[in-house]
Amino acid sequence: MSTRTPLMAGNWKMNLNHLEAIAHVQKLAFALADKDYDACEVAVLPPFTDLRSVQTLVDGDKLKIKYGAQDLSAHDSGAFTGEISGPMLAKLKCTYVAVGHSERRQYHAETDEIVNAKVKSAFKHGLTPILCVGEELAVREAGNHVSHTLAQVDGGLKDVPAEQAESIVIAYEPVWAIGTGKVCGAGDAQEVCAAIRSRLAELYSQELADKVRIQYGGSVKSGNVAEIMANPDIDGALVGGASLDADEFVKIVRFRD
Ligand code: PEP
Question: Cys-Cys with 122: which of 129, 158, 166, 233 at CB 3.0–4.6 Å?
């Protein structure tokens, strides 16, 4: 039986302004307050422009909900117009930052080298990276999904020391399942998540591999989360579209109810 606490994280993508963000987080907090939800850690990843509002609410009301960003710059400061740095996110007391989301890899040409630099920057500034990995449809159809995903794990973790790697979160998100309504079969998701854990054991140690939380992401909803979470190597979900509906996200968090 795993001792890893599942992490349910909502990736809002480019949705909800800072006022909507406050209303949304209040709704989550209210819906989760009557229950002991220590069984799951809950986090939201709002757009950058919402983070200060979410921080004020979470700190002010001492909410257990954690928050983080959807990306960060690999640089600490300087002439990088439009970017947001690790120190800025740390100052906002973010816990998490997603790194290498498939939409960043696809629309912003983020390579494993860039993703690796961002992972290192996150750790340098005390943020926990949620390293997103996963294959496109053609790669899965060719049967190369495991090797493709493990190469992204290797790339993202290159030269990251064990003292840092032990706290990383890895999100396995098959690209063809993101925002499409197509869920990776629970057995298929388990196959890749187990392979990721074995790779962590090879790169570091079995002890470290057993500590790291590996999430599944890709069209997770209240109707399929229990089946996904029944797998021994899946320790939570990274939820996109369904996290924008507070009631639905609460049902996902309370998948055991
Ligand atoms: C995501 O954006 O990480 C994601 C998994 O999206 P969705 O849940 O909408 O598929």
Answer: 129
